Amino acid sequence: MDLVDGIRVFVASVETGSFSGAAARLGMSPKLASKYMGELEAQLGTQLLHRTTRRLGLTAAGEQLMARAPDWLNELEEMTGELREARRGLSGTLRVSAPVTYGELRVLPLMRRFRALHPDLTIDLRLSDRFVDLAAEGIDVAIRIGRLDTSALIARKLGQISLLLVASPAHLDHAGRPETFGDLVPHCCIRDTNMRGDGAWPLTEDGQIHRITVSGPYLVNSARLARDLVIEGEGIALCHDYMVKADLDVGRLEHVLPGVCGPRLDVHAVYIGQRRLARRTRAFLDFVAANMFTEEARS
């Protein structure tokens, strides 16, 4: 066993909480991960982990190693990468998490552009609308929309998106075009349950926020489905601007109550702050910060 491989297994085991989690991250069997861990402890002459049927715990020696090992691994990877890639692009695996629809429409195109600059890079894009545990799942960067929960993560603001009231012309021709907040109440409204809160729509007019309780036959946990139902004429929805811009431009959708503003949501890139960032992670953060909200990205 190589010492570096053993330390990689150790760090991954601690961060994921199990040998099976470490094995999945590193692409090996749980049995081999456990073997590497035992060989590392034998080589260092000390026990690093307490093993129980439910979890792994750090010994005093394990805590001492864990305080330095992640940074050491990153520095080693960065040093060897710089030597190996002095005349090439970045390499290795970049693991990025993002919300499903935003990831499909905005993050994936950016990652393709980024990888085109670095063809030796492997992209591991994981789309989920839940807040993933970056350490447990080995994520380098997560793109998050909306209010950030308090955590030890470092956040870098990328920009903002707005929510717009939209409906199809056919629906508005049939049900009428709202002119006031009260006109929304009798309409069929499609509600995206991913939005935090009590289900009311927070709408701003003349600087004043109004919480409008709406109803309708569809509750969906997908921003894309809400937009698709609106296009089919099923009602009015509060949709992210990036998702409906093209539909508004060609007249497939109409902006309802254009003088009213929906919520504005911050978009952040977050990452673990206790460790040294790999060169590819730093480069990706700089790339998305420079390109996420350019006109090219919006089109």
The main β sheet shows up as: 9 strands, mixed
Order of helices and strands: HHHEEHHEHEHEEHEEEEHEHEEHH
Strand content: 15-25%
Structural class: alpha/beta
CATH topology of the largest domain: D-Maltodextrin-Binding Protein, domain 2
Q: How many helical elements? A: 12
Number of domains: 3
Alpha carbon gap, first and last residue = 50 Å
Give the low-confidence spans. none
User: What is the top-level CATH class of the largest domain?
Assistant: Alpha Beta
What is the number of beta strands? Answer: 13
Compute the gyration radius: what is it?
24 Å
**CATH A-level architecture of the largest domain:** 3-Layer(aba) Sandwich
3D shape? elongated
Q: Indicate the percent of residues in helices.
A: 40-55%
CATH 4th-level superfamily of the largest domain: Periplasmic binding protein-like II
Q: Residue-averaged pLDDT, rounded?
A: 87
Family: Belongs to the LysR transcriptional regulatory family.
GO biological process, one term: DNA-templated transcription
Organism: Fuscibacter oryzae
Domain HTH lysR-type: 1-59
